[in-house]
């Protein structure tokens, strides 16, 4: 992430939380203009009560944030604790206390362990770096991933950088701010003008965000501008302020979307657009009402295209607020498919249900009664949301040293829940023992950290249940970035001459394979990384190409050393294979993960071959196939129904079925735990192809 000039960051573990980093410091080497937006909750946390009286202001240089303890509803002692932390931070950084702001997030009602925070201030100062990763991690609570964004804009002939770190997952509901975020910029801008720009940016972004309808006591958005970019200071309305505000708004919108997508227990990002409203305020209120509706959110979780709940929510809100809105004349679209336009519309329920399983669900409501519009962001309401929040305080235990811990052992749950969970799990385990499944791992599942972790967890769970998984992976985004950096791609195609192939092998068999082995072995101890060259696992020959150079080191599999794999599987290992093969001519060949997965599955006579794909399954245009026979798939392929990677996967599925594989599944790798959903349900979630 690009960082504005003069800013540095640090994050450290102080012991407020059991393991992860829990205190962050954001520091500017130059005094800043500072502004803030805060929660409207009357039960404001102590750091909010302190900061909102002091902003906007000049001369601010640092923000100290702690996670794990909200310092909310702690009485006069909470404010005294804030003052102590500010004073000690200022002393450590050789600043005045007025130059430091504070923010907290975590459990409400526990006294802030000041001694733990002050003990690490020296370490934070020493750890300051112009990279925000550690600080971004340290402010997380129930977030599943850190959130960082940045922009560059030209102002007054100078490049100005805006960047931000933020956290937010639960207790997210509009009113000024809905998260903890620290926005930093090297723009020169006066405090009052910065405050005005921040309010405008927050109004249409964070204020249009709702996860659960519950507003936190600690919501805070800080903006610090140190002027290091050297642009003429922005002190009045004008073109520069307009550009700065638009960029700040765009930055906040990306944060809002990332928070909605990471809502507690969320499996889908929900985007609601309302158009044709009488006023912008009405449009925003109705969009938020739909995004925050418990019934709408539950329907989105279940991939249920229940447009009636959408219009019922619009009608209820319009009725209670006396808005001049007529739901009967509206037009509703879900995932771009018209479901209501003055009357119910005909559509394919199965197709729309499939589209609603995608990671992002879009609902559009055109009220046809005005010109105003607005967008709101939210997420679905899953079983996990209830579990997270039902257990949140009952499983939180206070420690004698002032920190808090979590005791979430299964033994703490109700007997009925434990019995149901164990009976369902055990009923599936017997079906998998000794079965073999080859999984082609790639796409979005290799990009997002949360998806990587859920995939690795799935593999370990499947192995523990007696399944024998074999993983074949590609290069993912790391390979693309490396090749682009080295200029080894032309118009999106890999230059596979000797130098290009060396890079491919280094990234796929080295970095990517090693990372995947490490992640899986953190959960167990049976993953083993293999290049197709190891033990002559994959023998290959060159595929002739029309241009010679572009196909020089692209090959196809001629033989799989299945005896080698049988030995590893027999000893309980999980083979993780990179698609690099060894030719009879002694050359190294790039074989492609799709083809290698099919060849390995055929050689092992695997019961299942699974392709993780960045789509719900096999699609023909907008048409989704939940199940196909080999003959049907072949007919569609011959008719030219598929292009690109979909075409490749269709060909490889047919090849695997012809080689003795019982079933081929193409499933959405963008959905967490899609492997478990595919294998541990009676009917899968993707496309099933049978012989």
Task: Explain briefly what this protein structure is.
This protein is of the alpha/beta class and 691 residues long.
Description:
With 691 residues, this protein is of the alpha/beta class. It folds into 3 domains: 7-261, L-amino peptidase D-ALA esterase/amidase, CATH 3.60.70.12; 269-379, ArgJ beta chain, C-terminal domain (Ubiquitin-like (UB roll), Roll); 435-476 and 510-690, Carbamate kinase. Helices cover 36% and strands 26% of the residues. The chain contains 21 helices and 31 strands. Strands 1, 2, 3, 4, 5, 6, 7 and 8 form an 8-stranded mixed β-sheet that branches. Strand 16, helix 14 (449-464) and strand 17 (468-473) form a beta-alpha-beta unit. Helix 14 packs across helix 16. The protein is globular, with a radius of gyration of 27 Å.
Q: Mean pLDDT, nearest integer? A: 85
Number of domains: 3
Q: What is the correct CATH architecture of the largest domain?
A: 4-Layer Sandwich
CATH class of the largest domain: Alpha Beta
Secondary-structure-based class equals alpha/beta
């Amino acid at each position: 992430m690009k960082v504005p000039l003069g800013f540095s960051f640090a994050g450290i573990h102080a012991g407020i939380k059991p393991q992860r980093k829990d205190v962050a410091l954001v520091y500017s080497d130059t005094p800043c203009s500072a502004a803030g937006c805060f929660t409207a909750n009357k039960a404001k946390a102590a750091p909010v009560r302190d900061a909102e009286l002091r902003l906007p202001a000049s001369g601010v240089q640092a923000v100290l944030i702690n996670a794990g303890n909200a310092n909310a509803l702690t009485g006069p002692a909470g404010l005294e604790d804030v003052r102590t932390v500010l004073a000690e931070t200022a002393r450590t950084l050789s600043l005045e206390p007025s130059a430091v702001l504070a923010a907290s997030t975590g459990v409400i009602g526990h006294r802030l362990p000041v001694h733990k925070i002050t003990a690490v201030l020296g370490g934070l100062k020493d750890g300051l770096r112009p990279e925000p990763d550690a600080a971004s991690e340290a402010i997380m609570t129930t977030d599943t991933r850190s959130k960082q964004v940045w922009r560059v804009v030209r102002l007054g002939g100078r490049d100005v950088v805006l960047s931000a770190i933020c956290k937010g997952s639960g207790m997210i509901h509009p009113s000024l701010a809905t998260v903890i975020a620290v926005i930093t910029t090297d723009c020169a801008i006066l405090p009052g003008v910065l405050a005005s720009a921040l309010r405008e940016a927050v109004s249409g972004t964070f204020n249009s965000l709702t996860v659960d309808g519950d507003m936190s006591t600690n919501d805070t958005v800080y903006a610090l501008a140190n002027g290091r970019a050297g642009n003429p200071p922005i002190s009045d309305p004008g073109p520069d302020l307009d550009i700065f505000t638009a960029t700040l708004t765009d930055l906040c919108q990306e944060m809002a979307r990332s928070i909605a997508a990471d809502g507690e227990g969320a499996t889908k990002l929900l985007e609601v657009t309302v158009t044709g409203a009488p006023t912008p305020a009405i449009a925003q209120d109705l969009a938020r009402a739909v995004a925050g509706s418990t019934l709408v959110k539950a329907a989105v979780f279940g991939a249920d295209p229940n447009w009636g709940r959408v219009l019922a929510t619009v009608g209820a809100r319009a009725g209670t607020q006396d808005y001049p809105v007529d739901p009967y004349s509206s037009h509703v679209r879900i995932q771009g498919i018209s479901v209501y336009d003055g009357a119910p519309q005909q559509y394919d329920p199965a197709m729309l249900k499939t589209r609603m399983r995608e990671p992002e669900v879009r609902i559009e409501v055109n009220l046809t009664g005005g010109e105003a519009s607005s967008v709101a962001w939210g997420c679905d309401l899953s079983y996990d949301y209830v579990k997270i929040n039902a257990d949140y305080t009952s499983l939180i235990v206070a420690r004698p040293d002032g920190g808090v811990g979590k005791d979430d052992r299964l033994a703490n749950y109700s007997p009925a829940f434990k019995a149901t969970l164990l009976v369902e799990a055990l009923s599936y385990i017997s079906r998998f023992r000794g079965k073999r499944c080859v999984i082609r791992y790639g796409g979005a599942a290799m990009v997002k950290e949360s998806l990587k972790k859920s995939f690795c967890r799935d593999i370990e769970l499947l192995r523990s249940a007696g399944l024998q998984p074999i993983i074949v992976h590609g290069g993912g985004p790391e390979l693309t970035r490396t090749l682009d950096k080295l200029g080894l791609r032309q118009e999106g195609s890999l230059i596979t001459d000797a130098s290009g192939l060396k890079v491919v092998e280094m990234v796929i068999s080295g970095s990517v394979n090693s990372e995947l082995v490490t992640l899986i072995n953190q959960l167990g101890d049976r993953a083993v990384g293999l290049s197709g060259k190891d033990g002559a696992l994959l023998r290959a020959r060159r595929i002739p190409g029309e241009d010679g150079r572009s196909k020089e080191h692209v090959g196809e599999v001629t033989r799989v050393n299945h005896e080698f794999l049988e030995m590893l599987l027999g000893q309980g290992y999980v083979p993780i294979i990179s698609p690099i093969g060894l030719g009879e001519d002694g050359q190294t060949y790039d074989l492609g993960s799709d083809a290698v997965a099919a060849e390995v599955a055929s050689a092992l006579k695997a019961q299942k071959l699974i392709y993780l794909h960045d789509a719900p399954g096999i699609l023909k245009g907008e048409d989704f196939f939940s199940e196909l026979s080999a003959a049907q798939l072949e007919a569609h392929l011959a008719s030219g129904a598929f292009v690109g990677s979909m075409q490749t996967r269709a060909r490889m599925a047919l090849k695997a079925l012809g080689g003795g594989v019982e079933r081929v599944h193409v499933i959405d790798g963008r959905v967490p735990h899609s492997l478990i959903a595919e294998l541990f349900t009676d009917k899968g979630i993707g496309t099933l192809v049978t012989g």
